[in-house]
Each structure stands twice: as C-alpha cells, then as structure tokens.
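Lab channel / #folding
Pinned by the channel admin:
"Please post every new chain as: sequence first, then the structure tokens as a reply. Keep commentary short and put observations after the output so the thread stays searchable."

First post following the new format, from NK:
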Amino acid sequence: MSDLFNGRNVRLTASEFAPLLRAPGDATIFLDPPYYMEGNRLYRHGMSVADHIRLARLLRECPHRWLLTYDDHPFLRRLYRWAKVETVKAVYRNRPDLAPARLATELVITAG
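Reply from TO:
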C-alpha cells in the first residue's frame, strides 16, 4: 500500500455499509458506492433507490468522519442537501486505445 498509509490501521471493504457506519470508535471512512444512474449496469453489485436513501440516512447520523463520491444527479443533490456537496471534473476512459475520453462532473460529499 502507499506510504500515505504507513503506520495507520487501514481496512478496505466491499460489503454492506450499515455495520461500518455504525461501528464504535474513531474512523475516517471513504465511500464510493455504485453510480446512481448507471451503477446497476456497470457493476456486479448495484444499489436500489432504497439503498441510496438508506445510505444517506445512515451518513446523516454517522459519528465518524466520512467522504462520499457519486455521479452528479439532481436526485443525489436533493438527497444530500443537508451535507456539504462539491463538484469535481472527472475524465472517463473505458478503452483509451479505442474511445475518446469523456469529461463528466462528479460529486464529493462530506458531513456539512
């Protein structure tokens, strides 16, 4: 792993998010859920609309520091209107040798 994590207790997970967000202790959590619009098509494990809503509710009550990234969509902006939402430009390249890069806007969300 990167030198950034030397001497730190780092755990990478790909599992149900509720136990992690409710866990006791002091943690900083980075969440990168499947995209809202295309996630069910792009990933093996997508999320339902109910899952996205449940994640937002749990984050609102989460005692930990957290950072969340998402595709930019009006539904997500409304869902996280209580949080700090910033936009960043992202370059997508599925096959750099065949397709041109696509520029898009993503959301970076933290507890206000």
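NK: Residues 26-110 form a domain with the Rossmann fold fold (CATH 3.40.50.150).
TO: also worth noting, Helices lie at 17-22, 39-42, 49-61, 74-79.
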